[in-house]
Amino acid sequence: GAGVSQTPSNKVTEKGKYVELRCDPISGHTALYWYRQSLGQGPEFLIYFQGTGAADDSGLPNDRFFAVRPEGSVSTLKIQRTERGDSAVYLCASSLGRGGDTQYFGPGTRLTVL
Amino acid sequence: AQSVSQHNHHVILSEAASLELGCNYSYGGTVNLFWYVQYPGQHLQLLLKYFSGDPLVKGIKGFEAEFIKSKFSFNLRKPSVQWSDTAEYFCAVRGHAGKSTFGDGTTLTVKP
Predict the structure, then answer these.
(1) What is the pLDDT of residue B95?
(2) Which residue, of A13, A15, B12, B65, has the greatest Cβ tally within 10 A?
């Protein structure tokens, strides 16, 4: 079916505001990943879900960042009290399972914090 | 901790030239290695991957990469580039549990 989708494609917000970024993985994929890509850099790992649980959240930069995947499908990345340094493209990827499965990336959400 | 280094930030080639993009990684265990490509205006796509076995892996669009364990390298090659290969290329390493670490990317510009 369809690939990984992310909404919105672009989000502009003001410093201090709260934002939510959504990821719809490929149907049947149990693993879901969030990455952040700043200009001129490669994607940086944030968090990895296996099913509904966060298997590895070691990449979340601080407690302003939080992600959920309550039903093991759609995931939401939540950022509180946004800062200008949070501006980046947030990428989501999904794979069939864990370990060596190929990750399929979505188009990303470009977040701009003014 | 795992890390990836891509030495070439921007490569400019003429069509039909040969390509080699360097990638070195650091990781203390068994790794899975990947090359991704991002064409202008598109999202990241997998070019090829190495998990085990033959260290020379072939991917889509005529790309190949060689895993050299002793050098911690996974260089990407293509014998003859085309204008349509203009894109950004990322090398990535993945240890256990699915977390991937990416290099900062190499922008390839192919002149027609």
Answers:
(1) 77
(2) B65
Q: What is the mean pLDDT of residues A19-26?
A: 98
Q: Which domains does chain B have, with CATH numbers?
A: 3-111 (2.60.40.10)
| A29 within some domain | yes
CB of B48 within 8 Å of a chain A CB? The answer is: no
Spatial CA neighbour of B6 closest among B69, B88, B78: B88
Asked if B69 reaches chain A (Cβ–Cβ under 8 Å), the answer is no
Q: Chain A contacts of B42, Cβ < 8 Å? A: 107
User: How high is the mean pLDDT of chain B?
Assistant: 92
Whether B97 and A59 lie within 8 Å, measured CB to CB: no
Contact in structure between B3 and B25 (CB atoms under 8 Å): yes
Q: How many domains does chain A have?
A: 1
The residues facing B88 across adjacent strands are B38, B107
User: Is B59 at the interface with chain A, CB within 8 A?
Assistant: no
CATH no. for residue A30? Answer: 2.60.40.10
Q: What percent of chain A has pLDDT over 90?
A: 86
